[in-house]
Design brief:
Layout lengths: L5 E2 L8 E5 L5 H11 L3 E4 L3 H9 L6 E5 L5 H12 L8 E6 L10 H9 L1 E6 L4 H75 L8 H31 L8 E4 H19 L2 E4 L7 E4 L1 H17 L6 E8 L3 E8 L33 H11 L3 E7 L3 E9 L2
Parallel strand pairs: 2-3, 2-4, 4-5, 5-6, 8-10
Antiparallel strand pairs: 1-3, 7-9, 10-11, 11-13, 12-13
Helix pairs in contact: 2-3, 3-4, 5-6, 6-9, 7-8, 8-9
Bound molecules: adenosine-5'-diphosphate (ADP).
The site of adenosine-5'-diphosphate (ADP) has 21 residues, from α8 and α9.
């Protein structure tokens, strides 16, 4: 507080009335009246002191000023301080005008102040009840401004906290992706060596092997391939998350992509004794996509359909097309997905727990990767399912 002032009572800035009545008895009388009404006031010796109070960090609740204190210079000073206030602040100013008589036109400085600030004019002589009522409502209006300030401060704080939390989460996520990418890379090298040496031994290049040893080597190779598959998934996902995957979006004929994918999964379908049908719908239709990535998504959807459908079941592929989109749906008559898990299966590492007996292989990354790939190509991936009846996954891509 910089003003030299005779403080009566003061709770905080929002409750304080700053008083400037340079001449006559108005000052002491006003102080007495306000104090009698339980209002806190501070008498300022001059406009500089009043402006210092108004411009102070805590500010004031309202200003009560006599007209004779508003010369051109001093009202200019006051206007300057008011203009420098924060946007939420609009200090109520009550001006005691006239001197016992109905006065002439409003003087220019007062007119200027009244048109740029929150000014109420009170003609003297003023009744005690009038001045108390006017000052009370000025303080009430000011309190509301302080509430707005508190709200703004709180909002700013929340925004800052949210921003910093998001920043931290992004950094942590980035570090995680870096770690996964690095680990996957480090794991792949020894795994490739395991596979390579197992193959050398199987081929008899290290000397003759017994049938039991051959079986063992085959087991080693199967496990090696499985582990390599998992690690490749983790690496792909980490790369996608870190934004290190490039997309080459071109016009891709969808039917051709599907034919290629079907040829790849046909052996798995046969091995499991599943019926397969292609309902067509994509002949002559193109999408805007990265061909390799679109293929990757469809292979994942078909592999899942095969994995989660028991022998004798069915897997279908169908295409529907509208003006903007091409929807390719892979459906199956498999175990299905409980409704409460349908959203979460797109999250990384999530697998539906079906008990230890029916545990399926996998990382729980296939759908997370597929969804990311679809999004990067400007499309999306959705799922529908009825537990025990079957599931259908739809890859939607922009029509080419
Ligand atoms: P993964 O197949 O490696 O476990 P995915 O991300 O591809 O990982 O799938 C996540 C989970 O979603 C699977 O573990 C399975 O529980 C469920 N799921 C995916 N596709 C199907 C499907 N066609 N039928 C039933 N469940 C499925």
């Amino acid at each position: 507080m910089t003003a030299t002032a005779d403080v009566v009572t003061r709770d905080d800035g929002s409750e304080l009335i700053a008083l400037l009545t340079p001449t006559g008895r108005d000052g002491p009388v006003a102080m007495r009246v306000l104090a009698g009404a339980g209002l806190g006031a501070v008498a300022c010796p001059d406009m500089a002191a009043l402006c210092a109070l108004v411009g102070d960090g805590d500010g004031v609740g309202a200003v009560l000023v006599a007209e004779e204190a508003l010369g051109p210079r001093s009202s200019g000073m006051l206007l300057q301080v008011l203009g420098a206030q924060a946007p939420w602040s609009d200090v109520p100013i009550v001006v005691l005008t006239g001197e016992d008589e109905l006065s002439r036109a409003i003087p220019v400085p007062l007119e200027e102040l009244a048109s740029h600030a929150n000014v109420t004019l009170l003609e003297r002589p003023v009744r005690v009840a009038t001045i108390v009522t006017v000052m009370r409502s000025a303080l009430r209006a000011r309190r509301r401004q302080y509430d707005v300030r508190a709200h703004l401060v709180e909002r700013k704080l929340l925004l800052e906290r949210e921003r910093s939390a998001r920043h931290q989460a992004e950094e942590a996520n980035h570090a995680k992706s870096e770690f996964l990418a690095m680990m996957s890379h480090e794991l792949r090298t020894p795994l490739n060596a395991i596979g390579g040496y197992a193959q050398l031994m199987e081929m008899g290049l290290r000397g003759p092997i017994t049938p039991e040893q051959r079986e063992d080597l085959e087991r080693i190779e199967r496990s090696q391939r499985h582990l390599l598959g998992l690690i490749n998934d983790v690496l792909n996902f980490a790369k996608l998350e870190a934004g290190r995957v490039q997309f080459f979006i071109v016009r891709v004929p969808m039917h051709e992509v599907l034919l290629g994918v079907e040829a790849l999964v046909l052996p798995q379908l046969r091995a499991k004794g599943l019926r397969y049908s292609d309902a067509g719908g994509c002949e002559g239709i193109a999408v805007h996509a990265d061909e390799e990535k679109a293929r990757q998504v469809l292979i994942n959807l078909l592999s899942n359909a095969i994995k989660f459908t028991a022998a004798g079941g069915e897997v279908r592929v169908a295409c529907t097309v509208d003006d903007e989109w091409v929807h390719t749906t892979v459906s199956d008559s498999g175990v299905g997905i409980p409704p409460d898990r349908l959203d979460s299966i797109f999250e990384p590492f999530v697998q539906v727990d079906r008990g230890l007996t029916s545990r399926q292989e996998g990382t729980g990354l296939g759908l997370a990767i597929s969804r990311d790939l679809a999004r990067h190509m400007g499309g999306y991936l959705t799922a529908k399912s009825t537990a025990g009846v079957g599931s259908s996954f739809t890859l939607t891509l922009p029509r080419g």
